[in-house]
From TrEMBL:
Protein name (record): Cation:proton antiporter
One record GO biological process: sodium ion transport
Chief place where the protein resides: membrane
A Gene Ontology molecular function term of the record: antiporter activity
Compartments where located: Membrane
Membrane topology of this protein: Multi-pass membrane protein
Domain Cation/H+ exchanger transmembrane stretches: 21-400
């Protein structure tokens, strides 16, 4: 559908105003229907963009704001995780569920891409977007059902944590491969050096975590030092500024060694815990980040996804249908299969598979990075947007029924 309304060159802030108001309006409608706001925000972009009204295009200024949105969304995702959560995801049988729930969808996506003769980079990215679980979306769905702290809810979250970290690690390798001539030797070299960089960075994070752990043994040591610094500084938002500088240092380190900045931002924000800075400071950091991200920058990012989306660019409808079907089915199968190996009963295994199916935030961030890097075409990007929205809409509906089944 396209009404052929000519593109209007409105001033930047007029574009921003229209985009934000419509994004928040549709986001609010979606939330009233117990759906994530990001779906409404994408719809706002689709309506205003080339697909329907052709009223606003994604200008360079909007892209910069979107980039900041990505940065804050990744920080928020990291704040939802702590190192105990990662250790939990690697303990015992959880690792079996995590690996199965990631690699079965990943290789299903890769096989699908190869079947439709996509190039190797696009094929890997399709696999990655199908394999990922949007941790913030999963947390929100489980919170809405009052199941976040249940045994089943915690199992879903610990698996999603591992899958997100694995996806970001593979993302680093793929982005390094982009500029290489794709021969087995070059691929091998790139994978080796990227893994070396990732290993260096992960060891740096672990060393920093151990240092934090050591100081945390002295009761409130870091929190007390932080309070002294905040009392010395006069600015009201000094805490958020210190936190932001901390995250930017790690984002800069990853960028300087050739990895994407979101990897550094994600791991750095993951280090911030109530044991480190105290519950009051953690809540302040979370609330400030959440307000900036979800109130302003994230709606612009997701509306920007809608502006880029063009249904008219999709010509391969069998591929679109199969991306949706394979993404949904393979994640359920991966979660179910891994859970059964880990000796979960059939009902619990099914609930875990369904609970891991929300894509949303992380999948759209990765699809957007791939599209901007020229790795995937507008057609594949648009298909991945549809897949992300579809799986995010269906997951709460199916998960609610799965929980009822488990409780019988």
């Amino acid at each position: 559908m396209h009404f052929n309304v000519p593109f209007l060159e409105l001033p930047f802030f007029a574009n921003l105003l229209i985009l934000l108001v419509l994004a928040r309006f549709f986001g609010e409608i979606m939330e009233r229907f117990k759906q994530p706001a990001l779906i409404g925000e994408i719809i706002a972009g689709v309506i205003l963009g080339p697909t329907i009204l052709n009223f606003i295009h994604r200008t360079e200024e909007l892209k910069v704001i979107s980039e900041l949105g990505v940065f804050l969304l990744i920080i928020l995702a990291g704040l939802e995780i702590n190192f105990e959560g990662i250790v939990k995801s690697l303990k015992g049988r959880n690792i079996v569920i995590s690996l199965s729930a990631f690699f079965i969808p990943f290789f299903s996506g890769v096989f699908l891409g190869k079947f439709f003769e996509l190039d190797i980079m696009a094929t890997i990215f399709v696999g990655l977007c199908i394999a990922i679980t949007a941790l913030p979306v999963s947390i929100r769905i489980l919170m809405d059902f009052g199941k976040l702290n249940s045994t089943l809810g915690q199992k879903i979250i610990s698996v999603a944590i591992f899958d997100d970290i694995l996806a970001l690690s593979i993302l680093g390798i793929i982005l390094d491969l982009k500029d290489e001539e794709l021969s087995f030797i070059n691929i091998g070299k790139t994978v080796f050096f990227t893994l070396l960089k990732l290993t260096f960075f992960v060891l740096l994070i672990i060393a920093f975590y151990k240092l934090i752990e050591r100081f945390s043994r002295k009761e409130n040591f870091i929190e007390d030092k932080l309070n002294k610094i905040l009392n010395f500084l006069k600015g009201k938002e000094s805490l958020f500024a210190i936190f932001f500088v901390f995250v930017l240092i790690f984002a800069t380190i990853t960028e300087s060694i050739g990895l994407h900045f979101i990897i550094g931002a994600f791991f750095a924000s993951m280090l911030i815990s109530k044991e480190l800075v105290g519950e009051k400071h953690l809540n302040t950091i979370h609330n400030t980040t959440n307000g900036m991200a979800m109130g302003f920058l994230a709606p612009i990012f997701f509306a920007g996804i809608g502006l880029e989306f063009q249904f008219s660019s999709i010509h391969n409808y069998p591929l679109l249908i199969l991306i949706i079907v394979v993404s949904f089915a393979s994640k359920i199968i991966g979660g179910y299969f891994g859970s059964r190996i880990a000796r979960q009963d059939k009902k619990t295994a099914l609930a875990i598979g369904i609970g891991l199916n929300a894509r949303g935030i992380m999948e759209l961030v990765i699809a957007n990075i791939a599209f901007k890097a020229g790795i995937i075409s507008l057609e594949i990007f648009s298909m991945l947007v549809i897949m992300g929205v579809f799986t995010t809409i269906c997951t709460p509906f199916l998960l609610k029924r799965a929980f009822l089944l488990v409780e019988k």
